[in-house]
Structures are given as C-alpha cells and as structure tokens.
Design brief:
It contains five helices and nine strands. It is an alpha/beta fold.
Length: 225
C-alpha cells in the first residue's frame, strides 16, 4: 500500500520564529468630532522573520508600514492579533530619536545605560560601529552640528549597540550617500551571517536579491511579494 505524502505546511508554519506577527489589526478614529469614524489601517497583517534572515516589507506611503513597525516594537497598541518577539530588540526608526544638544558620545553613553551594557562592552561596540560606518571623528560633535546622513549613521549605530537578536529598520538608509548605502548592505549581510534576524521596511526596495523574501503591505495585509 502506498504511503500518503505529507501535507505541505504554509510558509513558516512549524518553526520557532525570532519575530512572529499573526493577524494584527489596527484602526484609528478620524473625521470631524460630529462624524467620527473608524479608519482601518491593518486588517490582519502577518509575517515572520527567522534567525539569519534579512526580510523586506514594502508598501506605498500610507499603507501602514510604520504603524506595523511601531506595534512590533511596542510603541503602539494593536487592536487584535499577536506579536511574539525577543527581548533583545534593536529599532532604527525612520525619524532619528536624537537630542540636538547631546554629543554623539553622550548618545552612546545614554543608550548603553538603557541597554544595561557593561562599560567595556559598550565602548568596544561603540568603537567598532564608529569605524564600520566611518564617523569616528564626530564623536565629540553635538547632533545639531551633524548632517542628515551622519545623524542616520548614529541612529543605526544606536540600534546595533547591544547586538540585538532582532533588528527592525524603518527606511534605514534615508540620507545615506552611495558609499554608505552600499556599506549598510554589507553590514546587514555580516550580521545576518552571524545569526541576527533583520526586518527592513521601505516604500521601495531595489536590493531584493539581498533579501530572504519580501512582504508587500496592501489593503492592511502583508503578503509575500
């Protein structure tokens, strides 16, 4: 008697994911006060990222990419669904969360304390990132004196300072020159090889050959593109 072939599992099912987003919903209240209505943004978005994967999430402006990212990070409450992520998380937002009057060095010190890094480990990680992104000479500069590209280098470095298990990047290369843009992808490839899980969010991804897979967020849902 012939054996029945095992049923194929849906993509990602049966694995232990570093990031698992299942059926996430989110709506906002909009319109004038006399005619408030609920505007759905996410209508059951699901995706996953495994160890050593570099995954992309694309979608038009206003499709809900940043909303989903903020829900994953924990900055925004979801209406429904489930998000499972590791405790050691790195987040590089689209708009850098930096303070104009603090220096680059002071930002590293502040984030090292927030991550509860030992002083030696924090210094070694900081110096390696400064060298990797080639902005060591700006260590004593205040943020208000930095160019947009250098601010984004700092933004990315702070997300990587504690060597997270999962790195979330929202338009991470905005403001980068071509050389830094290429260096960013080299950095991502090295960390992926070391086992880091990475999710890159963008309205346009021209480097799809570098990615494990790409999800497209459309009509509130994320589907493999």
């Amino acid at each position: 008697m012939s054996e029945t072939a095992p049923a194929r599992r849906p993509l990602g099912q049966g694995r232990s994911h570093v990031l698992s987003v299942q059926g996430v919903t989110k709506a906002f209240r909009g319109g004038p006060v006399w005619h408030r209505r609920s505007v759905p943004v996410l209508s059951g978005a699901s995706l996953f990222v495994d160890q050593g994967e570099l995954v992309g999430l694309v979608g038009e402006n206003g499709s809900g990419k940043s909303t989903l990212m903020q829900i994953i990070v924990g900055m925004l409450a979801r209406d429904g669904g489930r998000v499972d992520r590791p405790a050691r998380l790195g987040y590089c937002p689209q708009l850098p969360l930096l303070w104009d009057k603090l220096t680059v060095a002071e930002h590293f010190e502040l984030f090292a304390q927030a991550y509860r890094l030992a002083p030696d480990a924090a210094r070694d990680s900081r110096d390696a990132l400064l060298e990797e992104l080639q902005f060591t000479r700006y260590l004593g500069y205040r943020v208000e004196a930095l160019s947009g590209g250098t601010r984004q280098k700092l933004n990315l470095s702070l997300a990587l300072l504690h060597d997270p298990q999962l790195l979330l990047l929202d338009e991470p290369y905005a403001g980068f020159d071509w050389e830094t843009y290429l260096r960013f992808w080299e950095m991502a490839a090295r960390r992926r090889k070391a086992g880091m899980a990475i999710l890159v969010v963008s309205h346009l991804l021209a480097e799809r050959d570098r990615l494990t897979r790409v999800y497209e967020l459309r009509a509130g849902r994320a589907d493999v593109a």
